Amino acid sequence: MKMNKKGFTLIELLAVIVILAVIALIASPIVLGIIQNSRESSQARSVESFAQAAQQAYAARMAKPGYMGEDITIAGSDTTWYAQVSGEADDANKEPVKYTGSAIKCSKVDYDPTTGYIEATCQVSGSDQQYDYCNAPQGSTCKSGMASTAGSAVKHASAGA
After folding, report:
1. What are 18-35's pLDDT values in tens digits?
2. Which of 67, 78, 128, 153 could form a disulfide with 44 if both were Cys (CB 3.0 to 4.6 A apart)?
């Protein structure tokens, strides 16, 4: 009787499955790390974009007629933000922050008109990670003493770290 030997044995199939499982175990943490780094980079770029738009809104609000040197704040939430004089009720004088990125929440956005430095501590919606931004030159500090991030958003140092 002649046997036709086509196909793979059970041992060969199991060996292939084991090899693929080992490769998956090695590759999955690497792939997950790449995805996390990409997500964090995207969130940092959103904070940078927002801070730069806020800086432009500050300058535009200061240029409006009737500005008397009052403190200007950034107020709003998610995707609707304005530069306005503190307590200002007149919507005509509010300057919109022209930002079209992800919804963002900021605990601090501050601008120093004498130096032009802006600093912000914000987080992108859907993330629990906060980012600091200060566009002072490297080695300098912003108004509140935040160390310069040289125009890049960096992870906010937590109190426990």
Report:
1. 999 999 999 999 999 999
2. 153
Nearest-angstrom CA–CA distance, 50 and 52: 5
Residue 51 structure tokens = 């801070």
Question: Quick one: 39 exposed, middle or buried, by C-beta within 10 A (0-12, 13-18, 19+)?
Answer: middle
What pTM did the predictor assign? Answer: 0.69
Q: What count of Cα atoms within 13 Å lies in the side-chain half-sphere of residue 138? A: 1
Q: Are 62 and 118 in contact (CB under 8 A)?
A: no
Supply 29's token pair: 């943490």
Q: Coil, strand or helix: which one is 44?
A: helix
| Side-by-side strand order, sheet with 154-155 | 104-112, 117-124, 131-134, 154-155
